[in-house]
Protein backbone atom coordinates (compact mmCIF):
# COMPACT_ATOMS: atom_id res chain seq x y z
CA UNK A 1 0.00 0.00 0.00
CA UNK A 2 1.23 3.50 -0.86
CA UNK A 3 0.79 5.92 2.04
CA UNK A 4 2.14 9.21 0.77
CA UNK A 5 2.26 12.57 2.51
CA UNK A 6 2.29 15.43 0.03
CA UNK A 7 3.95 18.23 1.93
CA UNK A 8 4.72 21.86 1.21
CA UNK A 9 3.47 25.40 1.75
CA UNK A 10 0.13 26.67 0.44
CA UNK A 11 0.34 27.09 -3.33
CA UNK A 12 3.14 24.53 -3.76
CA UNK A 13 0.92 22.30 -5.92
CA UNK A 14 -0.13 19.55 -3.50
CA UNK A 15 -3.78 19.41 -4.59
CA UNK A 16 -2.92 19.55 -8.29
CA UNK A 17 -0.34 16.78 -8.05
CA UNK A 18 -2.51 14.62 -5.78
CA UNK A 19 -5.02 14.16 -8.62
CA UNK A 20 -2.37 12.64 -10.91
CA UNK A 21 -0.92 10.41 -8.20
CA UNK A 22 -4.39 9.11 -7.33
CA UNK A 23 -5.00 8.23 -10.97
CA UNK A 24 -1.70 6.43 -11.46
CA UNK A 25 -1.52 4.52 -8.18
CA UNK A 26 -5.22 3.86 -7.52
CA UNK A 27 -5.02 5.70 -4.22
CA UNK A 28 -7.52 7.82 -2.32
CA UNK A 29 -6.92 11.55 -1.95
CA UNK A 30 -7.52 12.87 1.57
CA UNK A 31 -7.25 16.66 1.73
CA UNK A 32 -8.11 18.04 5.16
CA UNK A 33 -8.61 21.51 3.64
CA UNK A 34 -11.12 20.09 1.10
CA UNK A 35 -12.96 18.21 3.86
CA UNK A 36 -13.20 21.35 6.02
CA UNK A 37 -14.47 23.38 3.04
CA UNK A 38 -17.08 20.72 2.20
CA UNK A 39 -18.30 20.82 5.82
CA UNK A 40 -18.51 24.62 5.76
CA UNK A 41 -20.50 24.43 2.52
CA UNK A 42 -22.88 21.82 3.94
CA UNK A 43 -23.34 23.82 7.13
CA UNK A 44 -22.31 21.00 9.47
CA UNK A 45 -21.30 21.48 13.10
CA UNK A 46 -17.68 20.73 12.14
CA UNK A 47 -17.89 23.35 9.39
CA UNK A 48 -19.14 25.98 11.84
CA UNK A 49 -16.28 25.18 14.18
CA UNK A 50 -13.64 25.25 11.43
CA UNK A 51 -14.81 28.37 9.60
CA UNK A 52 -13.11 31.05 11.70
CA UNK A 53 -9.78 29.20 11.52
CA UNK A 54 -9.93 28.85 7.74
CA UNK A 55 -11.02 32.48 7.31
CA UNK A 56 -7.93 33.67 9.17
CA UNK A 57 -5.56 31.03 7.79
CA UNK A 58 -4.94 29.53 11.23
CA UNK A 59 -4.79 25.83 12.01
CA UNK A 60 -7.94 24.09 13.18
CA UNK A 61 -7.18 22.52 16.61
CA UNK A 62 -5.37 19.18 16.45
CA UNK A 63 -8.02 17.24 18.32
CA UNK A 64 -10.75 18.18 15.82
CA UNK A 65 -8.53 17.70 12.77
CA UNK A 66 -7.16 14.34 13.88
CA UNK A 67 -10.62 12.95 14.66
CA UNK A 68 -11.92 14.09 11.28
CA UNK A 69 -8.97 12.66 9.36
CA UNK A 70 -9.28 9.28 11.06
CA UNK A 71 -12.99 9.00 10.44
CA UNK A 72 -12.42 9.89 6.74
CA UNK A 73 -9.61 7.36 6.35
CA UNK A 74 -11.77 4.67 7.95
CA UNK A 75 -14.25 5.08 5.10
CA UNK A 76 -11.73 3.40 2.77
CA UNK A 77 -10.67 0.11 4.37
CA UNK A 78 -9.66 -1.62 1.12
CA UNK A 79 -7.74 1.03 -0.80
CA UNK A 80 -4.40 0.58 -2.56
CA UNK A 81 -3.07 3.73 -0.99
CA UNK A 82 -3.80 7.08 0.59
CA UNK A 83 -2.44 10.46 -0.47
CA UNK A 84 -2.43 12.74 2.57
CA UNK A 85 -2.65 16.34 1.39
CA UNK A 86 -2.51 19.09 4.03
CA UNK A 87 -2.13 16.58 6.86
CA UNK A 88 -0.19 16.24 9.12
CA UNK A 89 0.51 19.92 9.81
CA UNK A 90 1.78 19.61 13.40
CA UNK A 91 3.91 17.11 15.30
CA UNK A 92 0.93 15.79 17.32
CA UNK A 93 -0.90 15.20 14.02
CA UNK A 94 2.14 13.34 12.63
CA UNK A 95 2.42 11.17 15.74
CA UNK A 96 -1.28 10.39 15.68
CA UNK A 97 -1.09 9.46 11.99
CA UNK A 98 1.87 7.12 12.56
CA UNK A 99 -0.01 5.47 15.42
CA UNK A 100 -3.27 5.24 13.46
CA UNK A 101 -1.52 3.51 10.54
CA UNK A 102 0.50 1.27 12.82
CA UNK A 103 -2.69 -0.08 14.37
CA UNK A 104 -3.75 -1.15 10.88
CA UNK A 105 -0.38 -2.77 10.21
CA UNK A 106 0.48 0.11 7.88
CA UNK A 107 3.05 2.89 7.80
CA UNK A 108 3.88 6.07 5.88
CA UNK A 109 5.74 5.02 2.72
CA UNK A 110 7.26 8.43 2.03
CA UNK A 111 6.81 12.17 2.41
CA UNK A 112 7.30 14.29 -0.70
CA UNK A 113 7.97 17.95 0.02
CA UNK A 114 7.35 20.34 -2.87
CA UNK A 115 9.77 23.25 -2.79
CA UNK A 116 8.67 26.55 -4.31
CA UNK A 117 10.01 30.04 -3.47
CA UNK A 118 7.68 32.33 -1.49
CA UNK A 119 7.35 34.94 -4.25
CA UNK A 120 6.03 32.29 -6.64
CA UNK A 121 3.70 30.84 -3.97
CA UNK A 122 2.08 34.25 -3.46
CA UNK A 123 1.78 34.71 -7.20
CA UNK A 124 0.15 31.28 -7.64
CA UNK A 125 -2.30 31.83 -4.75
CA UNK A 126 -3.34 35.24 -6.10
CA UNK A 127 -4.00 33.64 -9.51
CA UNK A 128 -5.86 30.72 -7.92
CA UNK A 129 -8.10 33.19 -6.06
CA UNK A 130 -9.59 34.23 -9.41
CA UNK A 131 -11.36 30.90 -9.82
CA UNK A 132 -10.98 28.91 -6.59
CA UNK A 133 -13.70 30.88 -4.83
CA UNK A 134 -11.57 30.51 -1.68
CA UNK A 135 -11.70 33.62 0.52
CA UNK A 136 -8.36 32.59 2.09
CA UNK A 137 -6.70 32.87 -1.37
CA UNK A 138 -8.17 36.29 -2.06
CA UNK A 139 -6.84 38.24 0.93
CA UNK A 140 -3.08 39.00 0.87
CA UNK A 141 -3.06 39.27 4.69
CA UNK A 142 -4.53 35.79 5.05
CA UNK A 143 -2.03 34.43 2.50
CA UNK A 144 0.77 36.03 4.51
CA UNK A 145 -0.56 34.39 7.69
CA UNK A 146 -0.90 30.97 6.04
CA UNK A 147 2.75 31.13 4.97
CA UNK A 148 3.75 32.28 8.45
CA UNK A 149 1.79 29.42 10.06
CA UNK A 150 3.42 26.97 7.63
CA UNK A 151 6.98 28.02 8.47
CA UNK A 152 6.24 28.50 12.17
CA UNK A 153 4.15 25.40 13.00
CA UNK A 154 4.16 22.99 10.06
CA UNK A 155 7.64 22.94 8.49
CA UNK A 156 8.96 21.04 11.55
CA UNK A 157 6.84 18.02 10.54
CA UNK A 158 9.43 17.37 7.78
CA UNK A 159 12.01 16.73 10.54
CA UNK A 160 9.77 14.03 12.01
CA UNK A 161 9.84 12.08 8.73
CA UNK A 162 13.51 12.88 8.09
CA UNK A 163 14.24 11.05 11.34
CA UNK A 164 12.39 8.06 9.88
CA UNK A 165 14.36 8.32 6.61
CA UNK A 166 11.16 8.90 4.65
CA UNK A 167 11.44 12.56 3.63
CA UNK A 168 12.26 13.62 0.06
CA UNK A 169 12.40 17.08 -1.46
CA UNK A 170 11.10 17.67 -4.96
CA UNK A 171 11.58 20.83 -7.01
CA UNK A 172 8.03 22.21 -7.34
CA UNK A 173 8.92 24.70 -10.07
CA UNK A 174 8.18 24.16 -13.74
CA UNK A 175 5.11 22.77 -15.48
CA UNK A 176 2.55 20.54 -13.75
CA UNK A 177 3.77 17.65 -15.96
CA UNK A 178 7.42 18.22 -15.08
CA UNK A 179 6.72 18.22 -11.34
CA UNK A 180 4.48 15.17 -11.75
CA UNK A 181 7.25 13.23 -13.54
CA UNK A 182 9.66 14.04 -10.69
CA UNK A 183 7.14 12.84 -8.08
CA UNK A 184 6.38 9.60 -9.95
CA UNK A 185 10.11 8.83 -10.25
CA UNK A 186 10.54 9.35 -6.51
CA UNK A 187 7.52 7.22 -5.60
CA UNK A 188 8.72 4.43 -7.88
CA UNK A 189 11.97 4.25 -5.94
CA UNK A 190 10.02 3.72 -2.69
CA UNK A 191 7.34 1.21 -3.69
P1 LIG B 1 -5.53 23.84 2.61
O1 LIG B 1 -6.68 23.57 1.69
O2 LIG B 1 -4.65 22.65 2.84
O3 LIG B 1 -4.74 25.05 2.18
O4 LIG B 1 -6.15 24.19 4.06
C1 LIG B 1 -7.01 25.28 4.22
C2 LIG B 1 -7.20 25.57 5.68
O5 LIG B 1 -7.81 24.45 6.33
C3 LIG B 1 -5.94 25.84 6.49
O6 LIG B 1 -5.52 27.20 6.38
C4 LIG B 1 -6.41 25.50 7.91
O7 LIG B 1 -7.23 26.54 8.43
C5 LIG B 1 -7.31 24.29 7.65
N1 LIG B 1 -6.56 23.03 7.69
C6 LIG B 1 -6.34 22.18 6.66
N2 LIG B 1 -5.63 21.11 7.04
C7 LIG B 1 -5.36 21.29 8.36
C8 LIG B 1 -4.62 20.54 9.32
N3 LIG B 1 -4.01 19.39 9.01
N4 LIG B 1 -4.58 21.03 10.59
C9 LIG B 1 -5.20 22.17 10.94
N5 LIG B 1 -5.88 22.94 10.06
C10 LIG B 1 -5.97 22.51 8.78
Can you offer a commentary on this structure?
The chain is an alpha/beta fold. It has one domain (2-181): P-loop containing nucleotide triphosphate hydrolases (Rossmann fold, 3-Layer(aba) Sandwich), CATH 3.40.50.300. Helix content is 61%, strand content 14%. It is built from ten helices and five strands. The protein has helices at residues 14-25, 32-42, 45-56, 62-73, 91-103, 118-132, 135-138, 140-154, 157-163, 176-190; strands at residues 2-7, 28-31, 81-85, 110-115, 167-171. The radius of gyration is 16 Å and the shape is globular. Bound molecules: adenosine monophosphate (AMP). Adenosine monophosphate (AMP) binds next to helix 2 and helix 3.
Chain-wise SSE layout:
Elements: E1 2-7, H1 14-25, E2 28-31, H2 32-42, H3 45-56, H4 62-73, E3 81-85, H5 91-103, E4 110-115, H6 118-132, H7 135-138, H8 140-154, H9 157-163, E5 167-171, H10 176-190
Parallel strand pairs: 1-3, 1-4, 2-3, 4-5
Residues 10, 32-33, 36, 53-54, 57-60, 65, 86-87, 89, 93, 136, 146 line the site of adenosine monophosphate (AMP).
Give me the count of strands.
Answer: 5
- Structural domain tally: 1
Largest sheet, spatial ordering of strands: 2-3-1-4-5
CATH class: Alpha Beta
SSE pattern: EHEHHHEHEHHHHEH
Using the coordinates shown, work out and report the CATH topology.
Answer: Rossmann fold
Task: Please outline what is shown here.
The protein is of the alpha/beta class.
Keywords:
binds adenosine monophosphate, 191 residues, Rossmann fold, 61% helix, five-stranded parallel beta sheet
Amino acid sequence: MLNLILFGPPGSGKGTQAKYIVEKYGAVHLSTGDIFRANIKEGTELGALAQSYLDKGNLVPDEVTIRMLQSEANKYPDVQGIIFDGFPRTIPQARSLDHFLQEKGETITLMVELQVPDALLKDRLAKRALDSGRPDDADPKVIENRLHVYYDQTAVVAEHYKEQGKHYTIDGMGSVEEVCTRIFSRINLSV
